[in-house]
Amino acid sequence: QVQLVESGGGLVQAGGSLRLSCAASGSFFSINTMGWYRQASGKQTPGKQRELVAAITSGGIPNYADSVKGRFTVSRDNAKNTVYLQMNSLKPEDTAVYYCNIAQYGLNYWGQGTQVTVSS
After folding, report:
1. What average pLDDT is seen over the chain?
2. How far apart are CA 40 and CA 115, in angstroms?
3. Measured distance CA(10)–CA(106) in Å, rounded
4. Per-residue pLDDT tens for 97-114?
5. I want to staple 81 with a disulfide (CB 3.0 to 4.6 A). Which of 11, 15, 24, 107 is the partner?
6. Is the CA virtual torsion 79, 80, 82, 83 positive or negative?
7. What local confidence, expressed as pLDDT, does residue 21 receive?
8. What is the DSSP letter of 68?
C-alpha cells in the first residue's frame, strides 16, 4: 500500500507563488515517476478530467504541461520520497485541486488533493 500526503495549497493573489509538497510512504519501487495533476472546481469526478501539470522520473527527468512551462518547477528528493511543485507567476486559471501521483509499472497512486486558489 502506498500513501501520499500533500501540503502547501492555499489562497494566493495572481502573480504570487506557492510550493506544494507530497511525501510518499509505504511499499513502492525506487524506479517510478512522481508528479502533480490538477482538476478544476466543479469537475471533481475521480480519475476524470484531471490533467497532468508536471512530473519527474526517479532519474530526475521532468515533464511539464505547456500551460505551466516557465512558471512551475517540479523536483524530488529520492531520499525523502518527496516531490515538490514550485509554482510562480500564478494565474486565476491555475485554480484547481492539485493531486500528487506516483506511477510505477502501470500502477497509479493518488494523494487526497490540496486546493490552490488564485484570485485576480
Report:
1. 92
2. 10
3. 31
4. 999 999 988 899 999 999
5. 24
6. negative
7. 98
8. G
What is the rounded average pLDDT of the residues 43-59? 80
Which sign, positive or negative, has the C-alpha torsion 9, 74, 91, 95?
negative
For residues 40-59, average pLDDT: 79
24 phi, psi to nearest 5 deg: -105, 140
Contact between 96 and 41 under an 8 Å Cβ cutoff? The reply is yes
Assess contact for 8 and 98: CB atoms under 8 A.
Answer: no
3-state helix, strand, coil in the chain (%, to 5): 5, 55, 40
- Asked if 113 and 8 touch (Cβ cutoff 8 Å), the reply is no
